[in-house]
Design a protein that fits this description.
By secondary structure, the protein is of the alpha/beta class. It folds into 2 domains: about 170 residues, Thiolase/Chalcone synthase (Peroxisomal Thiolase, Chain A, domain 1, 3-Layer(aba) Sandwich); about 150 residues, Thiolase/Chalcone synthase (Peroxisomal Thiolase, Chain A, domain 1, 3-Layer(aba) Sandwich), CATH 3.40.47.10. It is built from 11 helices and 13 strands. The strands form 4 sheets. A 5-stranded mixed sheet has the order 1-7-6-4-5, with helices on both faces. β12 and β13 form a beta hairpin. The longest helix is centred in the C-terminal third of the chain and has 23 residues. The two termini are about 25 Å apart.
């Protein structure tokens, strides 16, 4: 099948990790009890994570990630950004996304502002696909895409949640990328994207409270995120399968083999998935960038934050084939993207 992606590239990346890193030891000192299994090499919680402070807004996080990138590239966002696409795990406002607020903070007035909510942990690749389509059909030249994870300090750190395994594993952060339809020499090129929706699993993850109230109803019970316990086995199997399948399908679409991948970047849910994905693909740990111990599970921000870290640390070199991939929620969405750096 021919690749339909237009010639677009990643002009730059950036990230923002809020406040001082929080250590696993601080959780233990506060009363977290680790069982021998929880303290094992695969299930142990990350060593560090960041939390947003009360009142921190997603638009502020995007600004703090994007402005240094714009300055580094010499880009004036007020004049040069045609498309803004955001993904925020916990929207700050009930009825609106953060796109307009983000544009206002940076003096932008792009023709396209899209708050893309459903892509979850695989949204970075989905946003690239959406931007590529807009650039191909509408003539847009430059796009800012931004992923924000902000639930760790606002939902998971609440009393009643803070010592749950998914709460301890979560971190907050923001990753951004500047996409250009005019890639110059040396600009990493997007080779293609691959996405898959599995709508039947969409209700297998959702907001939950101990007393069963809806999140919009008044009450004192703490709000949390919960998987359908009856489908745990199916969710784990689907998560283990989706990322390797999407990477292989993308390789067939873009005419590369898995053995040609120089750098693999996935979302960072836990050590088990990270191990299983690279084992299924036959990719050694050196080629699979792992930021889990430094930042925890960053959900949708995991891929762009990890990509920026890999680029900044010199893990990505000119000529490298870089593949990013992830799955969202209980598996209702998955996506992958490939770049020639």
């Amino acid at each position: 099948m021919p690749v339909l992606t237009p010639s677009i590239g990643i002009a730059g990346t950036g990230n923002y990790l809020p406040n001082t890193p929080i250590s696993l030891e601080s959780y233990v000192e506060a009363g977290l009890e680790l069982s021998p299994m929880d303290n094992g090499p695969l299930l142990r919680a990350p060593q560090w994570r960041h939390h947003v402070a009360p009142g921190d807004r997603a638009a502020e996080m995007i600004e703090r990630a994007a402005v240094p990138m714009f300055e580094r590239l010499g880009v004036d966002p007020a004049r040069e950004v045609d498309v803004l696409v955001t993904n925020v795990l916990l929207p700050d406002d009930l009825f609106t996304g953060c796109g307009a607020d983000t544009a206002h903070r940076m003096g932008m007035s792009p023709e396209w502002i899209i708050d893309l909510h459903n892509g979850g942990c695989a949204s970075f690749q989905y946003m690239l696909k959406v931007v590529a389509a807009i650039m191909a059909s509408e003539g847009a030249r430059t796009a800012l895409i931004a992923n924000v994870q902000n639930t760790a300090g606002q939902i998971f750190a609440q009393d009643g949640n803070r010592f749950k395994s998914h709460s301890v594993a979560a971190g907050d952060g923001c990753g951004v990328a500047l996409v250009t339809a005019d890639p110059g020499p040396g600009t990493p090129l997007l080779l293609g994207t691959r996405v898959r929706h599995s709508p039947a699993t969409a209700r297998d993850l959702g907001m939950a409270t101990p007393d069963g109230r809806h999140h919009w109803q008044t009450g004192d019970s703490v709000l949390d995120v919960r998987f359908d316990a009856a489908k745990t086995k199916e969710t784990l199997e689907l998560g283990n399968r989706l990322v390797p399948e999407l990477v292989r399908e993308l390789g067939e679409r873009c005419a590369f083999g898995v053995d040609e991948i120089d750098v693999l970047i996935t979302n960072q849910p836990n050590r088990v998935f990270l191990r299983n994905w690279r084992n299924a693909l036959g990719i050694d740990a050196e080629r699979h960038v792992d930021t889990y111990d430094r930042f925890g599970n960053l959900y949708g921000a995991g891929v762009p934050v990890t990509l920026h870290e890999a680029v900044s640390d010199g893990r990505v070199k000119p000529g490298d084939l870089v593949v990013t991939a992830g799955f969202a929620h209980a598996g209702d969405f998955a996506a992958a993207a490939a770049f020639r750096w």
